[in-house]
Amino acid sequence: MRNRLALLAAALLLTLTGCAGAGAIGAGGSTLVIAIVSNPQMNDAIELSDQFEAANPGVKLKFVSLPENQARAKITSSVATQGGEFDVVMISNYETPQWAANGWLENLQPYVDGTPGYDPADFIPSIKDSLSYNGSMYAVPFYGESSFLAYRKDLFEKAGLTMPAHPTWQQIADFAAKLDDKNAGVSGICLRGKPGWGENLAPFDTVANTFGASWFDQNWNAQLTSPQFKAAANFYVNLVRQHGEVGASSAGFSECGTRYAQGQAAMWYDATVMAGTNEDPANSKVVGKSGYVAAPVEQTKASGWLYTWSLAIPKVAKNKQDSWKFLDWMTNKQFVQMVGKADGWNAVPPGVRKSTYQIPDYQQAAKAYAQPTLDSIDAAKLENVHTQPVPYTGIQFVGIPEFQDLGTRVSQELSAAIAGQISVDEALEQSQKYAQTVGDSYRETK
């Protein structure tokens, strides 16, 4: 696996520019270079970072904040080639166990255990376990999520519709058809169509799983033209084309978030973390108007994904003690309180610490979505994912190094089908070829 990852990283490096070296000595001390994904929760942390610097004289923070697809590529190339550009990197539970196995990340367990009050037992178990390798944590979670469906209760009531607590995808498609109101500028649903293995493939893979599809069978034969995969792809593409948002092929999490918060979508299926923005009076026109229910299903009992944006220290980072101080600051219980008081309790990083859900102010602010979020994360267990055995792990991703490239390629085909540039069958035929090449390489090494 190490060689597979290194080759992929080398390819990425050819297309990426460099960055100032990590651990640089600045005026009066050291400067930590932190690679971070640009989204509202991370931006809140950047805005509060002067409080870290005030509490740690001599340590300056330099953030490299990039959109998700760019951040993944930049961070992967740096860490895998041991470039040393970054002291701290934001990664997920996709990268963490793979990179830990290859010796690319610092083992954080000694820091976790040696920091008074950090309380790793407070982490939600499934989130903590997803960032562990051989019993040790190699990344610490900033926020955790599953996926669920947000819907406009007022629009449902007006249309005489009732949302079940555990809807099927066919029910959602029927609702979307009835609620789609192009004259009013309201789409029946918002679904990601933007290319990226962490963009449109995240929700789509959960649809594929619950339709009985898989990427590979147990012998690593690609399954992207199977009847189940075709059924899932046709359903997803048709739903978003017929009743989804305008410009769906370029809409990702951020774009759907904006549309839903502005009242331009009746439903939105995506990450549970979306609820904080939906209920934020400063950014949303639909505060208090949404209900939240479990990820829709077809053949499985549950279909929500399991994901966490987390922080890790590359093995080659030079200033690990100060780097851990920053990780501790951004992922401890006090940070939750800081965000709640500074930016409002809807802005608190969700889905990570059990204690967050015991804070009275947070309970009040998150009453519409706190329990659905916890229920969704709890239901996101690997045994609920597929209807048949598969040789890989992961819910909304395939847990192999090649998926960064393979998933991106397939996501581009899916996006092209959503845009009407190619048919679903054409998209899947090409995707099958990409996947079969990867599957063949695994069969050769078995």
Strand content: 5-15%
Going by CATH, what is the homologous superfamily of the largest domain? Periplasmic binding protein-like II
Please report the distance between the alpha carbons of the first and last residues: 13 Å
Whole-number average pLDDT?
A: 93
Give the domain tally.
Answer: 2
InterPro entries: Bact_solute-bd_prot1, SBP
Protein name: Sugar ABC transporter substrate-binding protein
Pfam families: SBP_bac_1
Organism: Amycolatopsis bartoniae
What would your notes on this structure say?
- The protein is α+β, with helices and mostly antiparallel strands.
- It folds into 2 domains: 2-144 and 307-367, D-Maltodextrin-Binding Protein, domain 2; 147-304 and 379-445, Periplasmic binding protein-like II (D-Maltodextrin-Binding Protein, domain 2), CATH 3.40.190.10.
- The protein is built from 18 helices and 11 strands.
- The protein has helices spanning 2-13, 40-55, 68-80, 95-101, 109-113, 125-130, 153-159, 169-179, 201-210, 227-243, 253-261, 274-278, 320-331, 333-343, 360-365, 370-379, 403-418, 424-445; strands spanning 24-26, 29-37, 59-66, 88-92, 132-133, 136-137, 140-145, 147-152, 267-271, 290-294, 307-312.
- The strands form 3 sheets. Strands 1, 2, 3, 4, 7 and 11 form a 6-stranded mixed β-sheet that branches. It has a 3-stranded antiparallel β-sheet with strand order 9-8-10.
- Helix 9 (201-210) crosses helix 10.
- The radius of gyration is 21 Å and the shape is globular.
- The chain starts with a helix and ends with a helix.
- Mean pLDDT is 93; it is low at 9-20.
